[in-house]
Every structure is written in C-alpha cells, then in structure tokens.
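Researcher: Next entry in the queue.
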Amino acid sequence: MMRMRIAATAPAKSAPAGECSAIKSGAFMLLFASFCVQGFAAADDAARYSAGHGERALLVWQNGRLLMERYREGGSQAKTENVYSITKSLCALGTFTAISRNVLKLDEPVSLTLTEWRNDSRKRRITVRDLLNQTSGLSPGFREIYTANLLNKEKAALELPIVSTPGEAFAYGPSHYEALEVLMARKLDRSPLTWIASALFNPLGIKPGGWRRDRVGNPYFSAGAQLSARDLLAAGQVVRREGWNRISSRVPSSLIRTAALGSAANPMYGLGFWLNRCAPEKDAVECDVEEAISSRRPAWARSCLSKRAPADLIAMVGSHGQRVYISASQDLIIVRLGRGTGFRDPDFLRAFFR
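Model: Structure for this entry, 354 residues:
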C-alpha cells in the first residue's frame, strides 16, 4: 500500500490532511504530472525511480509550498527513520551554533581541549575545520568505532592512529565526527546532544525518535539519528536560507557559505555537506556518494552529484538512499527516505531536473 499527500497550493505548515488509503501499483507515475517546479519539470521518471528503490518517504518543497508529500512501505508523516550519515550534517549544524556562541572556533586546534593529542606532532595540528571536513588525517575508524556493543566510542576515537597530514586528504569515516563529539562534550561540560536539542532541534520543532549511543551513553555524531521526513525538511530550511537566526540560537550564514566551498582535499564535501559545485566544469564526472565513498580512489576534484542539477545543490547523505537535497537558487528542498540498495544520486537527479 502507498499513501500520498499532494499540496499544490497550500503552505507547508497547513498541508491538507486527506490521504489516499489505497492506490494501485503504478499510480505513482502520475504524482508529478499535476505541477511544474520553477526552472524544470519534476519528472514522472523521478517518482518511478525513487519508488523502485525502496522509497519510504518523498517530500518536495519549493517557494514556500509543500508540493508533494508521499509515504510508502510503512512510512508515514509521524514515523522516524534511521537517517544514518545524515547525522553528520545535523551535528555539523549543531556545531555551527556552538561556534556562533564562541564555544569553539572553526580553526582552533582541538588538542587545546583534547589534551591526549598534545604530544603527537600531527594530531596536535588537527582543527575543528579538519574534523568537519573529514580531513583530520585520522584513520577512518569504521571497525574500531562501529564494533558491536562498544563500551566507549570516545576512547576508541581518541586512540585512533593518524595516517596523513591534517588538511591534506579526505578520508570518509566515523573517526572525525566522533572526535568532534568528544570535543563538544568537553567544551560544553555536558552531553552535546543536549546542546543541539536546545539550540537547534527544539526551536525548529525537530523531535528525534532515537539516537545511537555506546554502552556508557555517549551519542554518536557520525550516524544513528532517527528523524521523520518533516524533521529533515526543517533542517534543510536552515541550509536553504544560508543560516538561521533566533533570539536564543544562531547558525551563521558565513558557515553555510564556507561549507558550500568544499575543501582543497575534496571540493565535493564541505563541513558536513555534499556539494554539486563542480557540475558546470567541462570535465565534471557524476558520481553517487555511497558508491564514491566505497571506492578506494574517487576523483573528488572533478566529481559532482549531477550535471543537470543546479551547481548550488547541497546534499545531506545517508546510507540506503537517505537524502536531503537543497538548492537556494531554486528555493527547493527534496527529502527522500528509503530502505534498500541501488538508489543513485545521478540517476534520481537526472530524472528530476529534466
């Protein structure tokens, strides 16, 4: 059974509640046919592609309107899903709020707080920027940090070896963000998740359904948050607006713009977000993020999510096709949640931006 909600004219905050309780197979091909998105047509092929790769939720928001909201395979508006590595992007936004309050600085050496690293000539050079960019030089740490029933992942992260000079190489893995979690915990003298909830989630109305922790209760920063599609839409709005200001909370626009620049080691990734900035280049190569991070030698310098998508497209990416795509120039946010394999960024975006 597939449930859908389409709101072609109503604002997102007042989307109609009517649902189709029974829709025959193949009906989803008509979902995009009833509206056009400024600058491109939202294609039947994109809806078909998403549904064919384990889709559980698909939301399209543009110009102040929720144009489409669809749930399948047990998904629903209220249901939270494991968003996997989208957790990194969420924790990056939480870190931005801490930077805005001078709890830490983007280019400060983390060894000023992580004193265990002071006697290592390379580890003591790692900055907050390096951790957010995944260019710290630390070993990725998949086995050490994601081992089942781990007692203390903070200890595991701090003890990881450094394998390259900080800032010189992009190495995707949990090590950087778990070291960031330790840094935030020590800086704040409390759980960083408590800070993020107060400074970011609560004001945005985001209510995580769960969060992965080790046996002593430390929250993971690299993966394991459980959010609904609408929660992710709210987080995407912060990126779309290039920042966010409230009386008690702030995500500086300068940090969103810095994230959109990527890094010298990987221009496709900046401060927790995947980028499409190389799309206009003549020699640009489309790549799926999940496939690329599994490759030993991806050509990051020439890589993009989609040649057809806007160059300012920013993505939050998680395993099994969990995606949030944001384009400020198109005033657009797409949230896609799923379970399964085979979903590819270039294929979905090629169908959507036709």
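Model: The mean pLDDT is 88.
Researcher: Noted, moving on.
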